[in-house]
């Protein structure tokens, strides 16, 4: 099977034939490439594991943080 054309319904969902769904599984990854889009089997995500990585990682800061005065902070609020 080299190439298959898929149909999209009125809600924007792709119809993938059953024999292909059985091969790729319940979770797929959609990746944009130079040639177009690639649908490949995906891996289930563990939300808590990803959340833990984000919480425990160092923030991508550049430079030294500046401590603003209350008047400077209030000036930012008034611009919004």
What does this structure look like?
Strand 1 and strand 2 form a beta hairpin. The chain has a two-stranded antiparallel ribbon. A two-stranded antiparallel ribbon has the order 3-4. Helix content is about 35%, strand content about 20%. The chain is an alpha+beta fold and about 80 residues long. It has a domain of about 45 residues: Pemi-like Protein 1, Chain: D, CATH 2.10.260. The longest helix has 10 residues. The model has no long low-confidence stretch (mean pLDDT about 85). The termini are far apart.
**Separation of the first and last Cα atoms:** 56 Å
Largest β-sheet summary: 2 strands, antiparallel
CATH-assigned fold name of the domain at 1-45: Pemi-like Protein 1, Chain: D
SSE ordering: EEHEEHH
Secondary-structure-based class equals: alpha+beta
The CATH class assignment of the domain at 1-45 is Mainly Beta
Overall mean pLDDT: 87
List the uncertain runs. none
Task: Give, in spatial order, the strands making up the sheet with the most strands.
Answer: 1-2
How much helicity do the residues have? 25-40%
* Global Rg: 23 Å
The tally of beta strands, per DSSP, is: 4
How many alpha or pi helices? 3
The geometry reads as elongated
CATH architecture of the domain at 1-45: Ribbon
Q: Work out the strand percent.
A: 15-25%
